[in-house]
Amino acid sequence: MRLALVAGATSLAGTGAALAQDVPPDSSPTTLDRVEVTGSRIRSVDAETSQPVLVLDRQAIEKQGVTSVAEVLNRISAAGPSLNRTFNNGGDGSSNISLRNLGASRTLVLVDGRRWVSALDGTVDLNTIPSAIVERIEVLKDGASSIYGSDAIAGVINIITRDNFEGAEFRTHIGQYSQGDGDRKTIEATLGANGERGNVVMSLSRVEEGAVMAGDREQSAVPVFGFGANASDFFSGYSSNGKIWNNAPIVDTDPDADDYNPYGIGSYRIIPPGAIGIGPDGQQRYAYGQTVPWSRAYAYNYAKDNYLLTPQTRTAMYVKGRFDLTDHIAFRGEGLYNERRSEQQLAGYPLNGGEGVFGNDAGMSPDSYFNPYNPAYGGDGRTVEWSHRLTEQPRVYQQNVKTYHVYAGFEGNFDFADRYFNWDIGYAFNKSDQMDTQIGDANMLNVRAGVGPSFLDTDGVVKCGTPGNAIAGCVPFNPLSPAGGVTQEMLDYILFTAQDTFQNKSESFTANLAGDIVDLPAGTMGFALGIESRKESGFDRPDAFVAAGYTSGNGRKPTSGSYDLNEIFGEVLIPILADVPGARLLEVSLASRYSDYSNFGDTTNSKFGFKWKPFEDLLVRGNWAEGFRAPPIQTLFRGLADSYESFGDICSADYGGRTPTIAANCLASGVPANFIQRTNSGDGYFGQTIFPFSFGGNPDAGPETSTSKTLGLVYSPSYVQGLEIKLDWWNVEIEDALSTPTVAYILDQCYANGDQAYCALFSRRPSDFQIDYMLLGPQNLSRINAEGYDLDLQYRTSDTGYGRFSAGLSASYMSKWESQFTQDSDVETAVGRYFDRDPQWRLRGNATLDWTNGNLGVTWISRYFSHLVEDCPFPGDGVCSDDTRRDADGLAARNKLGATTYHDIQARYELPWDGTVKLGVNNIFKKRAPTSFQTFANSFDPQYDIPDSQYLYMEYVQRF
Fold it and tell me: Where in the numbering of this chain does the TonB-dependent receptor plug domain appear (predicted)?
C-alpha cells in the first residue's frame, strides 16, 4: 500500500490528508489514509477498486516532453481520435479526449472530482486546463454514470491539481522541430506555503506554441501526396487567376439527350499570369482576346497555404487554499483564470459568382467595365459566371477563449457511534467566454455591387453605377484579374472581418456524505450519499453578417439554450468474505443515481461491481454499469447553419442504382426522367451541392443510454518483487445514440421507402429541379457496440549496482467496434479500418524503459499504432497498396496504412543546487505518418506526429 501511494496510485480528490486520517498515539499501529479513487465516492485504504483505473503522476507526465494536458491524454493507449492542434481546416484551437473511439462527448472530464465546463457540443476543451496545476491524472476506463452522472459512458478523466505544496518551483521548456519551426516556450512558477491551520498554492504559467506550415513538409505540401508530377490533378479548380465558367454557348439540340447545357458551361477560360489588359481608354481591362483556355496548369495548390500545426498561446493563473476551521472542519477554495489565443489559416477564399453555376446572384453584369463581353467593347452582353481565389488575402480564424473557475466549500470528518464519516458541501462556477475573429471572407452585398454595372468616369476613375449615376462608396471589383491582380482597394471593399461570440457556463451545488455503516464478519460496510443541483447554459452569437447570410462563408443563426437538473445518488461497499480459504477478500459494490432533467425527464442508472482475491497475489474484478448521455445544448438548440454537402441525387438519370420504385417516386414528385444532378464539380451524379443545406438542433432529442461491462485481474507475484500485471476485458453497448441522418439516408427514405416525413426535409428549385435546401438534424437513431482488452504491465527494481530500472507496457486491443445507423441498418464493422479523421486502430500501445543512477536519469518511450486499411479512391492508378482488390461485388480497391512506431528519449540530471535539467527528442527517428487518401485536407491523419520531424527540447526546473 505504501508503494502504491508513493507512485501516485490514489486520489485525495479534493480533501486534505490531515482531514482524511485518524491519528493514533505514537504507540499505536499506523493507520493508513482513507483515500478516494476515481470511480467510487467511498474512501478506502485499498488502491484497487472493481474498476480499472490508469494513473499518470506528475513525474511520468514530465518525462514525455509535451506542453499540454491534451497531449498527455491522447498518448494513452485507450485514447481514440480527437481534436488537437494538427486540425487546421475544421479545428478551432480546442483539444479533447475520446476514450474507446466513442467520441469526446462520451468521456467525462473532472477536475478534482468535479465537472469542468463543456462546450456547446458537450465536449471539454482540455486546453482550458493548464498543465502547470496538474499533480496527477486518473483515467477510469469504464462507465460511471451512477457515480458522476451524464457523459461517463466511455470513461472518466479526473485531473487532480497540486495541493499541500510548500516552497517555490520555477520551470521552463524550450523546443522546436528539427526543421526550425513549431517553436514552443513555456514558463511556470508555483508557490506554496503551509501554516498551522492550512495551505495555499498559487501557480502562474505561460505557454507559446508556434505554427508549422503544410508547405514545409513534403507529405502535406500538396492536397494528395504520392502522385508526384501528377499532383496538380488534385489542385483546386478555383484558380488564383480569374476564371470564366460560362464561355460556351447554350446547347439543346435534343431535349432527350445529355447535351442539354442550360448555362453555357463548356470550355472554361482564364486571364493568364502576366496579362496586360489596357483598354482603348488606357485603363486596366481584360478583353476576351486576352483569355486563354483553362487547363490544370492554372489549378491552385491550396494545401501549401494551410497551417499543418496551428499556433496557440495559453496564459493561466491558479490559486488553491485550505483553512482548517477546527480539527475536523475545513474551508476549501480555489480559482482559475486561463486565456487561450489560437489561430488557423487556410488558402484565400475561392470566391465565385453567378446564378447558373453557383446558385447566387453575383454574376458579373454585362455592363461591368471589366466584363470581357461588355457590349460597349464589342462583346455579346452576357452575364459572366466567374471565380477567383483570393490569394491576395489568406483566410485566418482566431480565437480568444477566457475560462473562469471558482469553487468554495466546506469539508470535514467526524465519528459517530464508533463509526467514521466524512462529508463535503460546495458550490462550483465554471464559465468560458470566447471571441472568434474571422478574416478573409467576403461581404457578398459588396461583391454583388462591385461586379454590377460600372463605368470609366470623366476623371479617369472606374466607378460603380452608370454615367451620371455613380454609386458613392462602391468600389468596382474585377474578379477576372490574374493572380495577385486584385487591388488593395478592391479587397478593402469586398472583404470584412467577422466577430462571433460564444459562452458556456456551468453552476453546480453538491453535498456528499460517506462513511461506515456496520461491522460485518469480513469488514466494515461503507456507504456514500450525495446530491447535486446543476445548471448548464450557453450561446453562440454569430456576426450579424454571418447570421444574415451575407458572407461568402457558411451562414448560421444564433444558438442559445439552457437546462437544469437535480440528482441524488447512493453507493454501498459490502465485504462478503475475508481471510478464508479461496477468498483472501471478496466484496461487492452497488450504486445508483437518479437524475431529473428539465428538458427530457428523469433517468435512473445503476451499477454492480465485485473484487475477489482468491489468494494474496491475485485480484479478480468485474463491473456492470448503466450509463447515459444527456443531449447537449447544441444538439437541442442549435440555430440553422449552412453546409455544402457532397451527395448523390438518386433522382439523377445517371444514378446507377435507380430502381423502378425510385424512378416512379421521383417522377411523381415532379422530377423529370432526364434530370441530371448539377454540383460544384460539374454535371452528373455525386458532388458538392451548389446550394447550402442547413444543420439545426432538435429540441425533442433524448438521452443516449449504455451498458458497460468489465472483467479483469491484477497479478502481483510475491516471488517477483516490483512486478504488477493488469489485464481487463471491457464492453460498451450504446442505444439511441445521437446521429444526424445523411443526405443519402434522407433521399433513400423519401424515394425508395416513400416516407413523406423525410421528403418534407428538402425542396427542389422549380426551374431545374436541383435540390436547393435540406434540413439535417440529430436524432436518437444509432447503436454502437465496442469491445476490447487492456493490458498494463509494470516492473520496478530496487537499487542495484547500476542504478534503478523500471519498465512498463500499456496496450489496448480493440476486438469489436460495430455500429448501426438505425436499428434496421446493416451492422458496420470498423476495427482496423480508416475513415476520414477517424482511425479505428486494432492495437495501440506504449512501452517505457526508465533508468536512474544517482543524479542521472534516462527514459525511452515507444508509441505504437497498428496498421489500418481504407477504401482506395484511385483504383488502377498504382498509388494504393491494393488497388486491384476485388470482392463479391466487384472491384473494391484498398490502401494500407502501415503500422507506425514513434520513439522518444529524455535524459535528465539533478543539479547540486536543487535544479533539474532535461534534454529530449520526440520522434527521434523522424518517422513519417502513413499516407492516407481519405483524410480531408491532408494526406495523413492528424492523430499522428508531424512527419519527417524530430521535436527537440530542453527543460529546466529550479526548486527553492
Answer: 47-156
Whether 363 and 448 share a structural domain: yes
Backbone angles phi, psi at 547, to 5 degrees: -65, -35
Residue with the three cell numbers 508555483: 190
Reduce the DSSP state of residue 213 to 3 states and report it: strand
Q: Grid coordinates standing for 632? A: 447537449
| Residue 270 shares a structural domain with residue 359 | yes
What average pLDDT is seen over the chain? 91
Q: Are residues 295 and 220 in the same domain?
A: yes
Q: Which three cell numbers stand for residue 807?
A: 519498465
pLDDT at position 887 is 85
Q: Is 463 within 8 Å of 437 (Cβ atoms)?
A: no
Phi, psi of 436 (to 5 degrees): -105, 135
Domain membership of residue 749 (yes or no) is yes
Quick check: 806 and 844 in contact, CB under 8 A? no
Q: Which of 755, 776, 797 is the last residue of a domain?
A: 776
Distance (Å, rounded) from C-alpha 530 to C-alpha 423?
9
DSSP string, 742-792: PHHHHHIIIIIT--HHHHTTEEE-TTT--EEEEEE--EEEEEEEEEEEEEE
Q: What is the mean pLDDT of residues 318-330?
A: 96
Residue 663 inside a domain? The answer is yes
Question: Does the pLDDT value for residue 506 go beyond 50?
Answer: yes
Same domain, 252 and 375: yes
Mean pLDDT, range 903-928, rounded to an integer: 97
Q: What whole-number distance in Å separates Cα of residue 45 and Cα of residue 51?
A: 16
708 assigned to some structural domain = no
Contacts of 924 (CB under 8 A, 6+ apart): 903, 904, 905, 950
| CB neighbours of residue 281 within 10 Å | 11
What separation, in Å, do the N-terminal and C-terminal C-alpha atoms of the chain show? Answer: 30
Q: 682 or 825: whose pLDDT is higher? A: 825
Nearest to 709 by CA among 728, 727, 736, 726: 728
Asked if 162 contacts 134 with a C-beta cutoff of 8 angstroms, the reply is yes
Contact 655, 673 (CB under 8 A): no
Same domain? For 295 and 226 the reply is yes
Q: What share of the chain is helix, strand, coil (3-state, %, to 5)?
A: 10, 45, 40
SS3 letters for 367-436?
CCCCCCCCHHHCCCCCCECEEEECCCCCEEEEEEEEEEEEEEEEEEEEEECCEEEEEEEEEEEEEEEEEE
Residue type for 819, please?
A: S
Output the CA–CA distances (angstroms, integers) from residue 300 to 227, 238, 348, 570, in the order listed.
16, 7, 11, 62
Burial classification of residue 361, based on how many CB atoms lie within 10 Å of its CB (0-12 exposed, 13-18 middle, 19 or more buried): exposed
628 vs 630: CA distance, rounded Å:
7
Same domain for 854 and 750 = no
Distance CA 637, CA 796 (A): 52
Instruction: Tell me the C-alpha to C-alpha distance, in Å, between residue 695 and each of 30, 237, 648, 744, 776.
Output: 62, 27, 18, 15, 5
Residue from 453, 262, 468, 469 nearest 366 by CA: 453
Check residue 657 and give its pLDDT.
83
Distance CA 101, CA 643 (A): 25
Residue ranges of E strands in 299-366? 307-309, 312-324, 329-346, 350-353
Using alpha carbons, select from 530, 469, 545 the residue that is nearest to residue 500.
545
Number of domains in the chain: 3
Q: Are residues 772 and 891 in the same domain?
A: no
Q: Alpha-carbon distance 708 to 734, whole Å?
A: 9
Considering the domain architecture, whether residues 384 and 491 belong to the same structural domain is answered as yes
What are the Cα distances from residue 104, in Å, to 108, 156, 299, 580?
8, 11, 38, 44
pLDDT digits (tens, 9 = 90+) for 528-583: 999 999 999 999 999 999 999 899 988 899 999 999 999 999 999 999 999 999 99
pTM for the whole structure: 0.90
Asked if the structure places residue 813 within a domain, the reply is no
